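Thanks for the sequence, V.! I ran Aldehyde dehydrogenase family protein right away. Repeating your input here for the record:
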Amino acid sequence: MFLAGEWTHRSQVIEVDDPGTGEIIATVPKGTAEDMEKALNTAIEGKKVAAELTTRQRIDILARSAKLVDDNVEEAAQLIATEGIKTINEARSEASRAAETLRLAAEEARRLTGETINFDQVSGNADRHGYTFRFPLGIIGAITPFNDPMNLVVHKIAPAIAGGNAVILKPATQTPLSALWLTEKLLEAGLPAKVMSTITGSGSEVTPPLLESREVRMITFTGGLETGEKIAKNAGLKKLSMELGSNSPFLVFKDANLDKAAEAAVAGAYGAGGQNCLSVQRIFVHKEVEQSFTEKFIQKAEQLRTGDKKSEETDMGPVISEEEAKSIMTDIENAKEQGAEVLLGGDHKDCFVHPTLLKHVPKNSTLYKDEVFGPVASLHTFSDYEEAIRSANEVNFGLQVGVFTNHLQTAHKAAYDLHVGGVIINDSSDFRVDAMPFGGVKGSGINREGVHNAIMDMTEPRVVSFKIEDDE
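Predicted structure:
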């Protein structure tokens, strides 16, 4: 791990395995609370170094790191696919996106400006003028998940660097290798060593000092709702940015293009093995087109090929662990006991859960009201617009929603009536470009990611006022 400005080993290690094969592929240090304390002490020095980097230096570091990722996309993709749940094609896409996110951060560093203030808008202040500029918070704590082990790291690290901060990264225990690889590239690109630490280990042991430290001025976290609530209770008086998942709805109105809707729903439900905060989980279809949509959905889903992540022909890989696969199967079985009917899949082998679609899933079941991090979707019907919107809104999540309709008024109205962070018209809820504001409402989190929004959160405005005195 990269600790206090140098690469550090420990006698106690954590094994990293390939969830597709069960093979141990690497070990990383099992960091401790003392390691985190050491990282914090170094970050106190590092925040001064980071703040003194000129805009030009920040741009150059981020741009060079983007090129290093671009030049080594295949190496990055192989690493992402080996330690995680993505197919090689999905991994290549993530690696390319990580380079693009670094480029976006370089561009945003250039645009990190203030504004002038008209103090004379208040009587008696004609002799004043001034402006604002943005200054870094200081130390950012970043905690990242397993499902996007490189690009979600970049979404936290790159804006922190662009804003002139030091940053301490705690990557997911299951997928630390992509984060360590990225750390190498940032250092190779010229990032001063004390500006960043990447600490591997168990979150319950490593993160408490990070959360409790008054020197840390922001925690940026992507993960589950339960963990997010614990972080909020323990972090104290500091900024929080948390993306906590969802169980995204997908609305298909009777005027929709059903072929395209079915294709988008299948991709959104089963891409990355359903282990995506944006994955399609609850599908609501107008009752008049339910049968046709269902047939098209199942036909397209049955064409998906699961298996070897490294094969170019594979569409869907495993879930992150056999334990998680069993948990998903428990949710499916519980829903069946409550009256749900399996239309597709509903079984697993080792870490591979087959693409699953259920009908008649009760609203009090886990599959309906909570996030299920796996390739499982449920199908429901609605009679009119009001019922569709009410159903989409009735859970404690609100990240993004896909809406399929060719009726402009329906699309515009839904954009205002859905309680979410993003309304995606005629596409899956699983749509994101890295420049857009990204986040949700209710249990889906607080604040927004996306490079511009993140940099705004990771810096603060300072007001400067000059009172002009006449010389006599």
